[in-house]
Structure formats: C-alpha cells, structure tokens
Design brief:
TIM Barrel; seven-stranded parallel beta sheet; eight-stranded mixed beta sheet; alpha/beta; single chain; 15 strands; 26% strand; globular
Length: 417
C-alpha cells in the first residue's frame, strides 16, 4: 500500500522520454512507479489532465520586506504551480543569511538562490543601480565563501549586462562575475535590457551591448529575457537574429524567457522562426518597485508564459522540458525535474480548459487562444496541494481560481480582486 496514486492522466516527463497515459505512484515523498498496478491510501482521479514533474521557475524575486519588490515565496512557488523557485539576485553575501532563515527555510516551496555579484543584493530593484551594483560593492572572495557555506541554497551568481552599468563602469562588474563563476564553478544568470540609470554622455550603442559577452560565457551560463523588446536587449533593434546569439548557443549558453514586463510576441515569433526557443521559462515575477508588499500590478506568471509560448508555436513537450529537465540541470540537482523512480515527488498537474482568452504583451499586441493550460494541483514532496493561483492574473479570471479559496494565505486584503 503506497501513499498516493495520481490516476489516469497524460504523464509528460521529457527527461525520461515519457509521454503516455499512466498512473503515477508516490510513496514516502518520492516517485514510486509509473504505470504499475499498486494500491494506494489516497487516489486522485486525473483523467484528462496532464501530470508533469514539478515546475522550476528559474527567475523570481521573493526576498520580501528586505527588497522592496519581493513576493511571498509560496505565492510565487506552489501557489503559482512551481515546486522549485530560484530567487535571482535579491541576496548578496551580506544578506543571504536572512534569506535562508526567514524565506527559504520556512517556505513549503523548494527555494534556491542565484546570489548577486554585489554584496547587498538588489535591495531596491534597478533604481539604486549605481549605488548598489558598482564595482566597489563587489567582493568575490566573500561571495565564494557564502556560496561554499550554503551549497544547496546558492546555485549560481546573478549579474547584469545592460546599458546603465556599461555607461558607468563598462563591463568591470560583469567580468568580476565571470571570474567568480569560474573560480566557484557556479553558473551565471545574466540580466539583459536597460535597468540601471544611464549616464547619457556614455550611453553605449544599443545593438552593441550584448555581442561583447560571447567570449566570457561558459557552458551552462544563462542569458535572461530572450524575447525582450528592450533596445539594448538580446534581439535589440536588429532586423535579423544577430550572429552572436548562435555563437553563444554554440558555447553552451542557455536562454531564459525571463518573462517579466518586456516580453514582445513579434520578437518571439521572429526568433522562433530561426529556431531560437527559450531553454528555461523563468517568470521574473516580482512585486511593484517602490512600495513594499504591493502585488496589484503583477500581470504575468510562469504558467502564463507557458501558455503564451505554446500559443506562439513552442511544442508543449519542449515547453515542459524548459520548466523541468533543463532548469534541474542548471541547478545540478538530479532529484528534481523528472519523474524517475525515487525522484522527489514534486509534481505539477495541468488541465487544458477550453474557452477563448486573450493575452497581451508589452506593446499591447494580442494573442487569442481557444484553450488554456490551468494548474489543478501540485504535489510537494508527496503532499498534494491545491494552488490558490492568486498571482496568475494574466492566465485566469478571479472566479476561475480553485473553489473555496478567496484570498491567499498572506496577501493583504484589497491588493487583488
Ligand atoms: Zn528579475
């Protein structure tokens, strides 16, 4: 007799080449079996649903109250359909201890961090960029020491390649991150697109901001915001997909969706037409810059990103790979990202719900679909949880949230419909 049986769903596990209707058995917090005849203490009938390895969001901001744009970890994690979330750069060597004690350890969600190359982390979003992220705020030995002290939590380094930093100090800080990544054997996650205040006298030529990065990339480093509309972003203002992108892929670099506020559907279409798909589907979910604990303007999500990319033409199995197997490889954790026997029983369950829905991008371009993949259940270390979906405003109407939940565990009343 095992603990739990998820019965009759289409099981999609790209890491193991599985895509078939099967029963999935869970016992003692681990995957027990796929397709075996087993008796379970609890059976959940999921006929018509999709069962996938627990989704991994490579890009969230969840250092609530210390940064001015952090979300509650479980709201961004299990309650948004992700069983593992990776905070990108909210922490630095000075602030990681608090993140572990007050955010990562108490969360039900599996929370990891890419720690900022600067000592403090991104306390004030991009707004204090020149104060917080200047070369004087970098201490490579301190970063490597904290990463060595917390190897399960710190899985990489967050840094930036954008116009503001380059107008002030060139790529000096980026090169420090490259040095730290090589010395500590840690992957980099590199933000792209103007973020910090720009010294206009030294503004770099937008189409040239990114190409210079290629010589410094190592296999497994990630470039964020692949379909961003920012003038200095990955596609920038090039008419054709620039050669440096293919050179970066050739070197083993990965591209993250980094959905956020700058996603442009026409740039996505142009790049997909040349075979450039995101390797991972990070959401970049964060609260409003400038007022603590305000989620009212958040209008994109991990699962919204999944639905948008599938509608734009990314094959579903590849999109699920980008939410599971590939980010697990970046995190170098073989216990997550797949449904092989004895993997952690972290599972995301989706259901394709028919009905018209229109997504919009940064430029208010519309993308209308005839059905959506909505989260029905997550299983976290064997424990089934109905996600409250409070942060999925790009994907679901308030009345579509699971019945019985009127407000999230910790969202203040009145900030959401
Ligand atoms: Zn971000």
């Amino acid at each position: 007799m095992i603990d739990l049986l998820l019965r009759g769903a289409r099981v999609i596990d790209p890491a193991n080449g599985v895509d078939r209707v099967a029963d999935l058995g869970v016992d003692a917090g681990r995957i027990h079996s796929i397709g075996a005849e087993v008796k379970a203490r609890r059976v959940i009938d999921l006929a018509g649903a999709i069962v996938a390895p627990g989704f991994i969001d490579m890009h969230v901001h969840c250092y609530e109250w210390v940064t001015n744009f952090g979300l509650p970890a479980d709201a961004a994690g299990i309650h948004s359909g992700a069983t593992t979330i990776v905070d990108q750069g909210s922490t630095g060597a000075w602030t990681l201890g608090g993140f572990k004690a007050f955010i990562a350890d108490p969360a039900k969600t599996d929370v990891r961090a890419f720690t900022s190359i600067n000592l403090a982390g991104a306390l004030q979003g991009g707004m204090q960029g020149t104060t917080l992220h200047n070369p004087g705020m970098v201490d490579v030995p301190a970063l490597l020491a904290i990463a060595a002290e917390h190897p399960r939590l710190v899985r990489g380094i967050k840094c930036h390649c954008e116009s503001g930093s380059q107008s002030h100090w060139g790529i000096e800080v980026l090169l420090k991150a490259v040095e730290a990544g090589r010395a500590g054997d840690l992957p980099l996650y590199i933000h792209t697109g103007e973020l910090f205040p720009v010294d206009e006298a030294n503004r770099p030529q937008p189409n040239a901001v990114m190409a210079q990065i290629v010589p410094y990339l190592k296999p497994g480093d990630t470039l964020a915001h692949v379909y961003s509309c920012m003038p200095d972003g990955i596609m920038a203002r090039h008419e054709e997909v620039p050669d440096w992108i293919f050179a970066a892929k050739e070197k083993g670099a990965l591209f993250d969706l980094g959905h956020g506020i700058n996603l442009a559907f026409d740039i996505a279409r142009k790049m997909m037409a040349k075979g450039i798909y995101p390797d991972t589907l990070g959401s970049d979910v964060h609260a409003d810059f400038g007022s603590y604990h305000d989620f009212s303007i958040l209008n994109y999500s991990l699962l919204g990103g999944l639905n948008k990319l599938v509608a734009l033409g990314m094959p579903l199995v590849e999109a699920i790979r980008a939410l599971t197997a590939t980010p697990a490889r970046t995190l170098r954790d073989s216990s997550i990202g797949h449904l092989g026997v004895s993997a952690r029983a972290n599972i995301t369950v989706l259901r394709d719900v028919p009905g018209s829905w229109t997504f919009t991008d940064t430029w208010k371009q519309e993308l209308t679909v005839t059905s959506r993949l909505l989260p029905e259940l997550v299983v976290m270390d064997g424990d089934p949880i109905i996600p409250d979906c409070m942060l999925l405003s790009d994907l679901m109407a308030p009345h579509e949230r699971p019945r019985g939940i009127t407000r999230s565990h910790d969202l203040p009343a009145g900030t959401r419909a």
